[in-house]
Specification:
The protein is α+β, with helices and mostly antiparallel strands. The chain contains 5 helices and 3 strands; from the N terminus they run H-H-H-E-E-H-E-H. A hairpin with a 2-residue loop joins strand 1 and strand 2. The longest helix has 19 residues. The protein is elongated.
Length: 102
Amino acid sequence: MFELLRAPVEPTAHDAEIRAWLQLDVRDRQLVVLRNTFHPWQITYDLTRTGLVWKAGPSWRLTLEDVTAGVRRIVECRNPIDLMADLTDQMAIIQRLAGPRP
C-alpha cells in the first residue's frame, strides 16, 4: 500500500487546466468568469488614466424594443462585481422581453 502512495502520478489534462488557470492574473480570471456567465455579451476591461473600467456590450444588434425596454448598448463599471450586477439586471430585462415560453 505504501508503495502505491509513493508511486508517481501522471498529470492529467485537468491538472494542466488548473495550472493554466492559476497562472492567469486576477483580472483575467474575473474576465473569464464574466464571459462564461454572460456569454451573449462582449466583455473587456481597460486601464484608463482615471483607473480600471470594465465594459460590456451586447453581441447582437439591439432593436428599438430592446433599447426602449432599457437594454444598454454599453455597460461600464469600475469593478467586475458592479458589472456582474448590472449585467444581471440587463439579462432580466431581456428575459422579460422574451416573455413566457409555451
